[in-house]
Structures are given as C-alpha cells and as structure tokens.
Amino acid sequence: MRTVLSKYADVAPEAWRFVTNEYGRPEIDEPADARWLKFNLSHTNGLIAMIVARDREVGVDVEDRERSGQLLEVADRFFSPSEVEALHALPEEERLDRFFLYWTLKESYIKARGMGLAIPLAQFSFGVDADITIDFDPKLNDDPNRWQFTAMSVGRRHALAAGVTRNKNEIVGVVLHETVPLK
Prior knowledge:
Elements: H1 2-6, E1 17-20, E2 26-30, E3 37-44, E4 47-54, E5 58-64, H2 71-78, H3 81-89, H4 92-112, E6 124-127, E7 133-136, E8 147-154, E9 158-165
Antiparallel strand pairs: 1-2, 3-4, 5-9, 6-7, 8-9
C-alpha cells in the first residue's frame, strides 16, 4: 500500500502515517500535504485491489467467486427488495455472478462513504442493466448523480467493483494497473 501511494506522491513508502476514521477506514495522516490522496483497499483469496484518487472519495471491493456459503440467503436478508427480486428472477446458473456483482458494488459504496456496514445494505439499490445505477432510500440523504461505479471480472475467479464520487455528469476514468509484488 505504501509503495503504491508513493507512486502518486513524492513520499518515501516508510514515511506514510495513517489514522482511522470513527468507522475504522484508514486515511492519510502524514505527510499532511498529501491528504488530497484518497485510497481504499480490499483483499480476498488470491487478489488484492487498491483504488487511489485525487480529492474524491473512493471505495473498492474484490470477492472470490469460489467462496462457499449460503450467499443467496445473505442477499435475501440484507439486499434491497428490488435487488432480491432481480436476483431471484434470473436463471439459477446466473444468480451467483449477480450476487457477487451486487455485493462488490454495495461494498464499494459503503467503503467510499467511509462508514462500512453502519450503512444498512437494504437502504440503497443498484441497477445493473445497460449501466450501473444507484438509488437511495431518503434516510441516506445521498445523491445518485454524485456517484460513478464500475464493475469487472478479474479472471473467472474474482469479482471487483469500484465507486468514486464525481461532479454532476462528470465521467471519471478508472484505470486498472496490475502490480505483482516482489518476492
């Protein structure tokens, strides 16, 4: 993480200092003149993802599709009614991929907000037809136009989604770089 951040600011990797917000999200503390740099990190079996931006909130999530568990029951319990309905309307062989799409998008949003699961997952809904859209329960007091999301597969095994804040109607470029750690 420190090495990646040092690619965006003239700071030695060992010089970075971090604090966490009240919900546990790490943020840059020192150097103070690099606090414009925003980042988020996610990891799962076989993959680490990090998103970095200038002066905008960002969130990223990556999940291993080979993970086992009662995932559809998780969706039934925690997703919004429209997401649950859309998920169950799919043929059975498409449901798992859609579950991970919704899950990674939801995680990217709550991480970008810096509040994690303090935001109830049922209070916002994703649409994933032609474009990725988000709608909010009025309790969240958020504007769908200030968000942009992207989702992708990283190989067949991993699902990844990222969310970034934007100015109204702005299109934010999201570029993927692969980094292989030194052994």
